[in-house]
Design goal:
With 194 residues, the chain is an alpha+beta fold. The chain has one domain. Helices cover 47% and strands 13% of the residues. It is built from six helices and six strands. It has a four-stranded antiparallel beta sheet with strand order 1-2-3-6. Strands 4-5 form a two-stranded antiparallel sheet. Helix 1 packs antiparallel against helix 2 and helix 2 runs antiparallel to helix 4. It is globular, with a radius of gyration of 22 Å. The protein starts with a strand and ends with a helix.
Length: 194
């Protein structure tokens, strides 16, 4: 694990770095096998709720931009859920290449991998250390003199989709929810006593 490939010599910070994340964001994980089952179950419940929520906001005719952003989050959640459910069942061992499909996978189905259902790992592969080999100034509290690297996390397309959806909702919330605040202002005017 940890194999790395730099596809463009002119962009040395654009890297593919293969890592299997056993937990959630930033590698946080719950302890043991039951922790993995709990995390995967949470992802299943979140995707089920996401399905209900998207159908609900479409029916209520929310702003199309908001629906799109929520759909980005939902798509990312599904991508991470699929990895979490099945990834360890498809491969015999962990490496960055597809040459390790479980022996007999096509004949036996999901039986020859290195993990059971609900125990898969999420594969992260994008790594963009744009600023590296920098040391923070010594006068800086807490982190003074420490090495600094931006952007350190390794992530996947699902993570990028979730982040883009969340950031877009935060940036465009006044546009997305303008109608909701206008209608609540009208209701409060109607409820005023003259």
């Amino acid at each position: 694990m940890g194999e790395e490939y730099i596809p463009f010599a002119s962009l040395p910070w654009f890297r593919f770095h293969f890592i299997e994340n056993e937990g959630m964001a930033y590698g946080w994980k719950l302890a043991g096998s039951w922790g993995k089952i709990a995390l995967t179950t949470f992802r299943l419940v979140a995707v089920a709720f996401g399905t209900y929520y998207i159908l609900s906001i479409i029916k209520k005719k929310y702003h199309n931009g908001y629906v799109f952003c929520v759909t980005l989050i939902y798509a990312g959640a599904i991508g991470n859920l699929i990895d979490s459910l099945f990834y360890g069942m498809v491969f015999e061992f962990s490496d960055a290449y597809a040459q390790n499909l479980a022996k007999g996978f096509w004949q036996q189905g999901f039986m020859g991998g290195y993990e059971a259902i609900l125990h898969g790992r999420v594969v992260d592969m994008f790594y963009f250390p744009i600023i590296q080999d920098m040391t923070l100034p010594a006068w800086m509290p807490i982190w003074g003199g420490e090495p600094f690297e931006f952007f350190r996390p390794v992530f996947n397309l699902a993570d990028a989709s979730i982040s883009a959806g969340l950031i877009s909702i935060l940036v465009f919330q006044s546009r997305f929810f303008r109608n909701a605040s206008d209608s609540s202002a009208e209701i409060s005017k109607d409820n005023q006593i003259d």
